[in-house]
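HOLO CASE FILE
Compound: zinc ion
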Amino acid sequence: MAMSDTQLKSALDTLKTTGVRITPQRHAILEYLIETMSHPTADDIYKALEHKFPNMSVATVYNNLRVFRESGLVRELTYGDNASRFDFVTTKHYHIICELCGKIVDFHYPGLDEVEHLAAHVTGFKVNSHRLEVYGTCPDCEEKATKLQ
Ligand SMILES: [Zn+2]
Ligand SMILES: [Zn+2]
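Model generated. Tokens follow.
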């Protein structure tokens, strides 16, 4: 079984155990999230799947994504005024974001647990999570920029 099939199967199992009905649309949206790994917006997902589900609206996609988020399968990423991007939750990872085209790429780095411990220690807070994003120019945009010079 391919990695993405295993992920899809366990995601569907999670939905079943939380009592969420698995409709063909939900199945397709999950599959798309797992396969693309591109952190799509609801609109991207809608455009990719509208040929399969002519009656589906962007609002339906949003509603399904909210269901997935509540089941802990999907993480919603918000960046300023831009539309939310959705990320299938696998392992903990960080994001690097292209400032020109908005592409988001995953990278792994040993969790910054020490930062959480230090923050808790110096502030007395109970720490739940942290958020770190790295910004730059992706290789594609960098290449385009050099060609223009
Ligand atoms: Zn880029
Ligand atoms: Zn990600």
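CASE NOTES: Residues 1 and 7 are 10 Å apart (CA to CA). The mean pLDDT is 89.
CLOSED: yes
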